[in-house]
Amino acid sequence: MARGRRGKNQAKRFLLAVIALVLAAVYPVQEQLTKETGGTAVSDGSTLEVHYLDIGQGDCTLIRQGDHAMLIDAGNNSKGTTVQAYLENQGIDHLDYVIGTHPDADHIGGLDVIIYKFDCSKVMMPDYSKDTRTYDDVIQAAKSKDYQITHPKAGEEYMLGEAEVTVVCPVKDSYGSNANDYSIGVRVQFGKNSFLFTGDAEEHSEEDMVSSGENLKADVYKAAHHGSRTANTEDFLKAVDPQYVVISCGEGNTYGHPHAEVLNRLREMGIQIFRTDDQGTIVAVSDGQTIAFNASPSDNWTPG
């Protein structure tokens, strides 16, 4: 039995190494997200793929497990067709879940295109609206497809194939007028590996997540609010205890993301980082035991 178990583990490690090599070829690190970066993803149902898309100053993450897919945000208004092309090049025509973390344009700007173009089983947004054309475009897109937008609560659980998805925020019903703190956050567990996404949730929301007692531990954490100093607090990072942090931000953005305070904190804590602003789209593949990336961790600790 022990010999058989060792053989299985060796086979898994070999498979993951092959996947990493293929990913490095299929998703060139330095290229911008264009139709040419596509190609059908490597997925035989035994892995979880997390694609942190390079869409400039904004957020968009595709998560795949077998034939199941989830999209978290879709970048700015000008990025909808870009995200559409990426999904199509992945061979995706159906999304189990579409999450618009909060109503800021750099997160939901492209969601109307995605809702129009794809079959979406469940569309989630926080119970917080904005009087903007961008927000209304998403609402009208959902209405045109007869989709009922749901407002998930912290603690709710969903399945994405064999992956477990737990809503971790927002913990409270009201955060005043701060749209960021209404962000929907989810923790994705696949085997022994876990990934955390919290949109633009800032300090108050982070405090509530820690106080809630919900499991926040994650191997990979997507930095909140593009690496802003208004989020990614020391107490929260200690609760998450990630090995890797992925920062989604645009090259030369006017906000200075990621901020020096956050980069210094991550470096002092010994956390390795990936950055879409100088590495392009980052793809992580988990076999439930270990995680392979399409790039080496960044050695760029320069603020945006």
TrEMBL record:
It comes from the Bacteria. It holds the Pfam family Lactamase_B. Residues 57-251 form the Metallo-beta-lactamase domain. SUPFAM superfamilies: Metallo-hydrolase/oxidoreductase. InterPro entries: ComA-like_MBL (IPR035681), Competence_DNA_uptake (IPR052159), Metallo-B-lactamas (IPR001279), RibonucZ/Hydroxyglut_hydro (IPR036866). This is MBL fold metallo-hydrolase.
